[in-house]
Amino acid sequence: MKYYYLIALLIAGLCLSDSFAADSSAHKAMSLHEDDFSTQCNLEARNALVNGDLALVERVCTQAITELEKSDEDREALVNPIMNLAFSYTLTGRFDKATPLYNRARNIREKLYGADSKQTKEIDDMIKRQEEMRKQRNQ
């Protein structure tokens, strides 16, 4: 039952949050290739999360991250697959793998938008949610 709660919480966060939406005013435009990987990752990861296929989330997001890093390691386009991969690790209790990914996404946002920006604070909120989930799991 607690897994249903965790999955529901994360799906709601994914569906209701704009934290992974790119803000074109603060970064270089994505190429069509980058946009395809980012969009594919987002759609497949959301569908896989809904269906409980966390291995697919990991595979798709890892491929997207690898491909997007070829052009620049600090691009907004990387935030989406990084966060989706972090979610999949959080859902499976692999917090040690999730935490560095959340921090990496936060660092990208901080470089692009600043530490006090709405975009960075959205990731801070996700980091707090992960910590709450870790505490619940340890109880």
Description of the molecule:
- There is one protein chain.
- The chain is mostly helical.
- It has one domain (29-138): Serine Threonine Protein Phosphatase 5, Tetratricopeptide repeat (Alpha Horseshoe), CATH 1.25.40.10.
- The chain contains six helices and no strands.
- The protein has helices spanning 2-16, 32-51, 54-69, 79-91, 95-113, 118-138.
- It starts with a helix and ends with a helix.
Domain count: 1
In CATH, what is the class? Mainly Alpha
List the total number of helices.
Answer: 6
Helix and strand element order: HHHHHH
The end-to-end span amounts to: 14 Å
Strand content: under 5%
Q: How can the largest sheet be summarized?
A: none
Low-confidence stretches: 15-26
Could you name the CATH topology?
A: Serine Threonine Protein Phosphatase 5, Tetratricopeptide repeat
Question: In brief, what are we looking at here?
Answer:
This protein is mainly α and 139 residues long. It contains six helices and no strands. The longest helix is centred in the C-terminal third of the chain and has 21 residues.
Describe this protein with a few key phrases:
single chain; 139 residues; mainly alpha; Serine Threonine Protein Phosphatase 5, Tetratricopeptide repeat; globular
Question: How are the secondary structure elements laid out?
Answer:
Blueprint: H1 2-16, H2 32-51, H3 54-69, H4 79-91, H5 95-113, H6 118-138
